[in-house]
């Protein structure tokens, strides 16, 4: 069964959504895996009810993420919990926020510990899992199945490393700190935009939804040798000793392969965005590719008994967590038989 986890995706209902602790209540609920679509709708209503709610929510979210980063560091845990370093205690982030953790207290703790302990965080998803994150700068990230993302923020820039898998980024605007996503030796650089990156081995695909991103080839991942005072947003996007290989416009998709110039083409964004609603959209997609796509998400594995089936063109909209339904649809449309093996695999063979 498909798993989903989230740091921010909903909020509590009822009278607790009013009053000075409302934002903390929302953030605590958003951290729960028990959230519902009604929670998400309730959050939107709460944000719309008062123009100040969004800013208050973001402030509490930043506290939450800061405390979450500290929870993974034994020394930081000890300082926050008043414990000895050799006996670190586990931080319950929901309890901290639900108990009314004060902005001043959290800020003081971070100041005592120092900024370096807040600089790094690693996020992973397992096969079949998706995870939505709210980063300390206000940016939103959604990780797809079997993905790993490392986040390294400092006062000058925001660096992220997609080691494998797929992620969607909605970047908070910050003209002084470029948002840099590294996929192997390549970099996708943005300021305030939304884009999707998918990495498979040393190959990657970058799709831009809104704004503008620059792609740099064969870069080191080190800090930019540029002062924040050297220019505005545009200069920060392309600054550095290496010129961008390509700058994408909304609707563009760039394919990155080592030692090969990027290829850029216009794509249907609905196809790229479908995974965020647990769907896959196929249009005359070779069956072999469709099977590989479904197998990314865990669950019963699809297997082609005959390689000759790989080229069959498949079209339709399918749930990523329902490979059996996909197999049955293929069997209905083509002379193909779908059977379940003793080990749970779904085998597609000529009928």
From TrEMBL:
Residues 1-22 are annotated as: Disordered. This is FecR domain-containing protein. Residues 21-59 form the FecR N-terminal domain. Keywords: Membrane, Transmembrane, Transmembrane helix. InterPro entries: FecR, FecR_N, Ferrdict_sens_TM. Gene3D superfamilies: 2.60.120.1440. The chain crosses the membrane at residues 95-118. It comes from Caulobacter segnis. Residues 122-213 form the FecR protein domain. It holds the Pfam family DUF4880.
């Amino acid at each position: 069964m498909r798993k989903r986890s989230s740091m921010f995706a909903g909020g509590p209902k009822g009278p607790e959504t009013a009053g000075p602790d409302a934002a903390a209540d929302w953030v605590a609920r958003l951290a729960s895996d028990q959230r519902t679509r009604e929670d998400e709708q309730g959050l939107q209503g709460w944000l719309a009810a008062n123009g100040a709610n969004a800013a208050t929510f973001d402030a509490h979210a930043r506290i939450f993420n800061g405390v979450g980063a500290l929870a993974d560091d034994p020394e930081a845990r000890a300082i926050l919990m008043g414990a000895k370093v050799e006996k670190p205690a586990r931080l319950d982030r929901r309890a901290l926020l639900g108990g009314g953790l004060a902005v001043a207290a959290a800020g003081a703790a971070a100041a005592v510990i120092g900024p370096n302990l807040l600089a790094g965080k690693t996020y992973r998803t397992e096969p079949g899992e998706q995870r939505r994150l709210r980063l300390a700068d206000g940016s939103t990230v959604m990780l797809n199945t079997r993905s790993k993302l490392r986040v390294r923020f400092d006062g000058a820039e925001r660096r992220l490393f997609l080691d494998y898998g797929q992620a969607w980024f909605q970047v908070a605007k910050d003209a002084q700190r470029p948002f840099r996503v590294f996929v192997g030796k390549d970099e996708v650089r943005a300021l305030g935009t939304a884009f999707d990156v998918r990495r498979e081995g040393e190959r990657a695909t970058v799709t831009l939804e809104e704004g503008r991103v620059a792609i740099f080839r064969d870069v080191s991942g080190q800090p930019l040798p540029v002062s924040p005072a050297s220019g505005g947003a545009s200069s920060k996007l392309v600054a550095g000793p290496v010129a961008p290989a390509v700058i994408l416009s909304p609707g563009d998709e760039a394919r990155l392969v080592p030692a090969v110039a990027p290829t850029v083409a216009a794509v249907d964004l609905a196809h790229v965005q479908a995974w965020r609603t647990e769907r896959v959209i196929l249009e005359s997609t070779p069956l072999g590719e469709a099977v590989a796509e479904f197998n990314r998400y865990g669950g019963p594995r699809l297997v082609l008994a005959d390689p000759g089936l790989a080229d069959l063109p498949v079209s339709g909209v399918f749930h990523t967590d329902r490979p059996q339904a996909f197999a049955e649809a293929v069997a209905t449309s083509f002379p193909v038989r779908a059977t379940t093996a003793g080990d749970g695999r779904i085998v597609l063979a000529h009928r």
